[in-house]
Amino acid sequence: MRPGSYHAATEALVSDSPGTVVVTGVSRFLGAHVAARLAADPRIGQVIGLDPADPPAALADTLRDVELVRVDLRSAGSVLADLGVEAVVHLAITSSPDVIQGGRGAMKEHNVIGAMQLLAACQQAPRLRKLVMRSSTAAYGASFRDPAVFTEDTEPREVPRGGFARDILDIEGYLRGFRRRRPDVVGTVLRFAPLIGFRADTSLTRYFSQPFVPTVLGRDARLQFVHVDDALEVLHRSVVEDHPGTFNVAGEGVLALSQAIRRAGRIAVPLPEPGLAGALSAARVAGIGQSGLDQIDLFVHGRVVDTTRLIQEFGFTPRSTAAAFDDFIQAHLGGALVAPERLATAEQSILDSIRRVRAARREAMS
Predict the structure, then answer these.
(1) Which residue has the higher pLDDT, 73 or 259?
(2) Does this model's pTM top 0.90?
């Protein structure tokens, strides 16, 4: 089914759209654009954006029809009650620690404690009837024991090493408790694959934007992405329609990491896993990215999820992983930087160098 088309069964799920919707995290791209889409929908009465920070100037025009309230999630209780909120879309989740903002401790405070405070506020909101929560496929973790494909019912085989994945598991656990206390509220959890596309600006897009891309020696992880526009569509439908439950949101098909790098016209630089961790740490210090253990584990083990439940329930099929990545290449990068023949020569040179280092080590040990 092509993006934007509805499945016939979806019509039976459409309910009266909520009059007042609160969107958290509107100072960032995803939150701002979700709020703007909802504000432009005539079925929605009012859209209020909550964020402790003012949106950047680049998002000012996007949010012109959204009422902005500068407030921390810990103080959201009075706002939700006073406004008679009927739906909440929680997008204020940080995926990587920012040293300037306090590092891992501040990230957990924002993600986990912030979600707890918001859910407590939702608990006391008498008119609330819908809660949409952004989650991530990182909730499944990444290890050598993983199944080939994760479904929404698959439990992590190991506790994830990365802080973001652990935060996601905690947040989803608190949401399950909220559902038990407020069965009258339709709860939707959306586990997004990494976002990509011509408008996406994430640690992953910055990773693929480097001329030389560090990878894990001997590994070629299978990856899935979701186009940012498809993510916005699913979030929009979650508000104007009733879709209770947990859903994987990803483009069908997979790309091996090596394929993605070649498509982007970049040069892969294989490193031992500690070397990759060091390279990503150096990139964080230089301000190039904010990658952490979650991303390293993804590049080692990969992650593929099943999206059957999403397609059947929403009647919507996101564009494929390959199509989403190609859109990112053509628009975000302006095409490949390295011609295929030069790319092949450079990769061969790197492999030859690795072989020479290995041979020298064997001679030294003999």
Answers:
(1) 259
(2) no
